[in-house]
Design goal:
Residues 208-241 are annotated as: Disordered. The chain is α+β, with helices and mostly antiparallel strands and 341 residues long. 30% of the residues lie in helices and 23% in strands. It contains nine helices and 15 strands. Strands 2, 3, 4, 5, 6, 12 and 13 form a seven-stranded antiparallel sheet that branches. The protein has a five-stranded antiparallel sheet with strand order 1-15-14-7-8. The N and C termini lie close together (7 Å).
Length: 341
Amino acid sequence: MRYAYLSQKGYYPDDPHKPNQDAYSVTDRFGTRESNDGFFAVYDGHGRDGDLCSQFARDEMPKYLAKHINKMKAKESNAMKDKLETYRTSDPLSHIELSKEQMHKASLRAHVECNLAMHQDPHVDDSLSGTTAISAYVHGRRNRLTISNVGDSRAVLGKATQPNGYGQRQALKAFPLSRDQTPYRKDERIRIRKTGARILSLDQLEGLQPINDNADDDENNDEGDIELGEELDEGGDPPRVWSANGDYPGTAFTRSLGDAMAEELGVYAEPEMLTREIKPEDRVIVIASDGVFEFLTNQSVIDICAKFTDPLEACRAVVAESYELWLQYELRTDDITIIFV
């Protein structure tokens, strides 16, 4: 397994001193001294203190996840002490294998506790600021991968779909490992509206477009759903989450870490998780903030990466292409962060 990472500060001509609100973390030998596991994560901050929120998650999330994974392993260790005696190792927890359900429980608890700790940190004002969190945990000995996602950053797998001829560079097909949690998703819209929140675009909020709050009442109605990653959002005015009684918080996502004022509207920190076995045809994983995917589909990103054998060169190419496309279509760019495994 080889990897590289790259983060490019956004270009904001109206706010040239705005900090890079993206952050990332890469941890080898994750959890225990003898572990072969790896943890890769990208955090995309937003709001006035978005950089502090993403940096807090970067520093604390790996600790919370390691804590809960090791707690689960310690329970297993106590349940099979006799077997562990045969390992004669200084780090017996490294031999404990967690089930999918145990991994998901550990990840859920880590995200919820990290979110609560952010609320309580006196140095971070997360009332109207927060961060996404997308992570890939590679279980080295079991050859498994667990993705945990909060928000609209993204993980994508590049998979070989045909045998590789000797000396030939292989085309890869993109498979999403996460789904963006935004009001474009009908299930998320329904969940958010149950709190009493409104879901409106800015044009709808300002009365420039009609509002149809009953669009989701029909279970067979898929109007307005977009599978982001396969399609690009070309409208430029996404649906957002608003309080029933005020023009806040206006989040274009339905889950996040932080965003304390939005939590009562259902914008919470519980991740969606996926665990799968890593197979021989699985060649690359891309974990990136939404700055990468604003003008590139999942397949476009994987196509760029497939041209390179050096992970860092792949990162540079994706960031350069994303940055150039931003400047073609906008007067600014977002922060752009990618990890390529």
